[in-house]
Design brief:
628 residues; alpha+beta; 4 domains; 6-stranded antiparallel beta sheet; 32 strands; 22% helix; globular; disordered C terminus; Gp4_sf
Length: 628
């Protein structure tokens, strides 16, 4: 019988030193200079982030649970989210009734519940009450705040310690009855499928479908229909980000079987910075591809991991690109002039990438508030029309008839001075102005109401206008209802010629079609027919511009999975300016290698940056009137 250890798992320094030896940058037994080591560490982190999009590392697949609230359809997952999403949780029940305002609850079992945990308790009125655990004594849990309502004996109680990180993708989801533990699979939806749903916030019992939007920072998980009670959760099977590596003793977030593939892949990543001969580079690239293919086929280990943000600053990306294209040496610090030129090129490259239309993290849901008889609305800086990102809007009603500049509203939570506010007038139309001050339940307006607005009239406020969209791929008419629940109906998009050929663009009626014209400065959204009243809005999906880099400390407006593609493509962008930084004639073979790697990394990132597409059927006619 064989004995010994099977726990070999080298640290970061071993992987980096091994990769540098493969490309001939150091000899056996040598240690790279500190700045070269840091450059290689940055490249290693970028490589690991780029591997996330391959989707083959099942050891990084994990389970998370989203705890739902009545009537809430959308939940944030990731850092900074106020919603409750757990990596793992324990469930028990209340052992005795508890009155509203009490700061303690007796539970059937305290196993897994400790000070600092988040705890959720199903209230008699529906919904989960959430707070932190102060302490646990015997079978009693002491809470950080008083209960928001009474709790009956036998009510479900859940608790968790670690919040869930932002998933890269959600592979599958199941609705879970917290009382019985029964799980029911949910059906995934595309962005367009979800956007076209009418009444997304209408409580309809247990959710049946879901849509996951992997935004930067915090992912957005939506369910349909919205839950009717707080006793339902959703368990997700997700692909999680890979953990970053920092210190020399840190271990890469890969199984032992992947270490060799990682070392050779890092050697290929670093080779252009050290003028690795083309023949040796091709040999290393072939070996790296072979090792990756072998472990990718074997990759069946289901162990989840956690992550921390990488988000490489712009300066590190620029310095890496300058090394790749030969403008500076492996140990050189780029001159300020080189960095400034590269900074301008990076902004130009990123803005050009907007035309690809594939960056789904930059798509957002917006609302255009219509006015009776108005068919043309400006979207962008300086527009007087009311257009906002939907998630930033706060809706309430007048608590009493409004007059002058002082109005009282049903709720001021979330509204602040400087916001735009719209009030629905009795005579029709919406009056838009600014909020000067918020005090108690009242708002001080920048301009007085031009006419009467009765108690119960709709009030909408939002912090700032949205930027000009690049494209508007879809829109819905959002019909306001008397009970506050809006109904959405998809609108038909028109081409410029379709809209131009309409003989009477101002005919009043119910809006059924739209045309978006992305002009410079402010885009123009046209609707047809002209709205006959202010009882509806247009909810639309907008592709926003990518944010330019303001300075060298900026973090890219990209997911981490794009950082390697940005670095290599910036190197290709800069190559013609430097031609090897005066070290001799341009080497076409070296440029071809750089270009090939940049294209390959961009294609991998683009292939990942997609979402399920809707399948739509409809009647059509060809040029001769034939169906087609």
């Amino acid at each position: 019988m064989m004995t010994g250890s099977a726990g070999w798992n080298p640290g970061t320094s071993d992987i980096i030193n091994g990769a540098l030896r493969l490309i001939g940058a150091i000899a056996s037994g040598e240690v790279p200079p500190a700045n070269e080591y840091q450059d290689a560490l940055s490249a290693l982190n970028g490589l690991i982030k780029a591997w996330q999009v391959s989707g083959v590392h099942v050891w990084a697949q994990g389970e998370g649970t989203v705890f739902l609230q009545p009537g809430q359809a959308r939940y944030g997952i990731g850092a900074g989210s106020a919603d409750n999403v757990a990596q793992g949780y324990v469930a028990t029940v209340a052992g005795a009734p508890v009155v509203a305002g009490a700061a303690q609850v007796t539970v059937a079992s305290v196993a897994g519940i400790a000070a600092g945990c988040r705890i959720g308790i199903v209230l008699d009125g529906g919904g989960l009450f959430w707070c932190s655990v102060l302490s646990v004594v015997g079978g009693t849990v002491y809470l950080a705040s008083g209960l928001g309502g009474p709790v009956s004996a036998g009510a479900v109680v859940v608790a968790y310690g670690a919040p869930f990180v932002r998933p890269l993708t959600v592979i599958g989801a199941r609705a879970v009855d917290l009382a019985t533990g029964v799980e029911t699979p949910l059906i995934p939806m595309s962005r367009l499928d979800y956007a076209n749903l009418s009444g997304k916030g209408t409580p309809g019992g247990s959710p049946m479908q879901y849509f996951y939007d992997p935004q930067v920072g915090t992912g957005l998980f939506s369910v349909y229909p919205a839950p009717a009670g707080g006793q339902v959760a959703v368990t997700l099977t997700c692909q999680l980000p890979l953990q970053d590596v920092g210190g020399a003793a840190d271990r890469a977030d890969v199984p032992q079987e992947w270490i060799s593939a990682l070392r050779f892949a890092l050697a290929v990543e670093l080779a252009p910075e050290y003028d690795c001969p083309a023949q040796r580079f091709e040999m290393l690239k072939a070996m790296a591809a072979e090792k990756f293919a072998v472990v990718a086929r074997w990759d069946r280990e289901p162990a989840g991991t956690t992550t921390c943000p990488f988000s490489q600053p712009v300066y590190q990306m620029i310095a890496g690109a300058l090394r790749l294209c030969g403008a500076v040496g492996p140990q050189d610090v780029p001159r300020l002039g080189l960095v400034e030129n590269a900074f301008a090129s990076l902004n130009a490259m990123v803005q050009a990438w907007q035309a690809s239309g594939i960056h789904v993290w930059a798509e957002e849901e917006c609302t255009l508030f219509l006015q009776p008889g108005q068919v043309r609305y400006l979207i962008g800086a300086g527009s007087a029309d009311a257009v906002a990102v939907s998630s930033q809007c706060v809706e309430t009603v007048l608590a009493a008839a409004g007059a002058g500049v002082q109005v009282r509203v049903g709720a001021v939570a979330g509204i602040a001075a400087g916001w735009r506010v719209g009030l629905w007038l009795d005579g029709g139309g919406v009056f838009w102005t600014g909020v000067v001050a918020v005090s108690g339940g009242g708002l001080t307006l920048a301009a007085p109401l031009p006419s009467a607005a009765s108690a119960g009239a709709r009030v909408v406020a939002y912090p700032c206008p949205m930027v000009r969209p690049l494209r508007v791929p879809a829109a819905r008419r959002r019909q306001f209802a008397g009970d506050g629940q809006a109904v959405e109906v998809p609108l038909v998009p028109m081409s410029r010629l379709d809209y131009a050929n309409i003989p009477n663009k101002s005919v009043p009626g119910v809006v059924t079609q739209f045309f978006y014209d992305p002009q410079l400065g402010a885009g123009v959204l046209h609707v047809w027919p002209a709205p006959s009243d202010s009882g509806c809005a247009v909810a639309f999906t907008a592709q926003r511009p990518l944010m330019p880099f303001a300075d060298l400390g900026s973090v890219p407006d990209f997911p981490d999975e794009w950082l390697a593609a940005m670095r290599w493509n910036l190197a290709v962008e800069l190559w013609p300016e430097y031609n090897g930084s005066g070290k001799g004639p341009v080497d076409p073979a070296q440029y071809a290698i750089l270009k090939q790697e940049a294209v390959s990394k961009l294609m991998v990132a683009q292939a990942w940056d997609r979402e399920p597409q809707s399948v739509l059927f409809g009647a059509g006619a060809g040029p001769a009137g034939r169906a087609g």
